[in-house]
Q: What sequence folds into this?
């Protein structure tokens, strides 16, 4: 499911949201501090810092909190930004995905396949 949604988001030029969210989910599972610092810096340079290659749309307080904590990142260091992005997808891009031709065509093809298998 997430990969199909990501494919759709690429067509809408907003796949940075799902990529960030998935990266945050992986980040939260990192336990060695050294790996966490490395991953936090990658998240910051890819998604958070101004003019990042995949900059996400978060508010200034969330961005500033990450900047303050980037030197000693914790497992929860990106949760506020992750929540903002999740809510954005939940309220905006996911409903658009469900209404898109991309999803409707996929759903139609899946239903046709299931019907064909039932008839076999």
A:
């Amino acid at each position: 499911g997430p990969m199909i949604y990501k494919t759709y988001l690429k067509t809408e030029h907003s796949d940075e949201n799902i990529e960030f969210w998935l990266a945050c989910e992986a980040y939260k599972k990192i336990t060695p501090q050294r790996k966490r610092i490395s991953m936090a810096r990658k998240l910051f340079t890819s998604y958070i810092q101004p003019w990042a290659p995949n900059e996400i749309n978060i508010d200034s307080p969330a961005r500033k909190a990450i900047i303050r904590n980037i030197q000693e990142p914790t497992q929860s260091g990106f949760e506020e930004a992750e929540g903002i992005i999740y809510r954005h997808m939940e309220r905006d891009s996911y409903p658009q995905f469900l209404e898109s031709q991309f999803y409707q065509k996929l759903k139609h093809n899946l239903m046709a396949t299931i019907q064909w298998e039932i008839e076999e």
